[in-house]
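call fold target=Gag protease polyprotein
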Amino acid sequence: LPPTQRRHDAIWVVVDRLTKSAHFLPIRKDYSVSRLAEIFQQEIVRLHGTPSAIVSDRDPRFASRFWKGLQKAWGTRLKFSTAFHPQIDGQSERTIQTLEDMLRSCALEWTGNWDDYICLVEFAYNNSWHASI
């Protein structure tokens, strides 16, 4: 993604495996694990409480001692998808593919920063029909 005025250059996708609802959080690739934990607490835990389990890719930030310690303090099981087998977390992979399609279809209409509109994409995604529900 192109950097925005707020210097966001990535989207953190958080998916609730039960309801299929998703949060699309604009972030910077250089955010520290403590900054990501702060965002997670403000945007996810605040709305949904602490999760019972988190399935994550093997990003070094999510494999760090700090993140593992935070999950232990919250009582959350931390699971990692295996390398070269992202289909283990297929639900998130499908959500990311849908997000990419939605962003591509909206890109021509938007002027300015994509992070100004990501909340509308999240709203549209969460209010669309999902075959697996």
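return ok
The chain has a mean pLDDT of 85. The beta strands are 10-15, 22-27, 53-56, 77-80.
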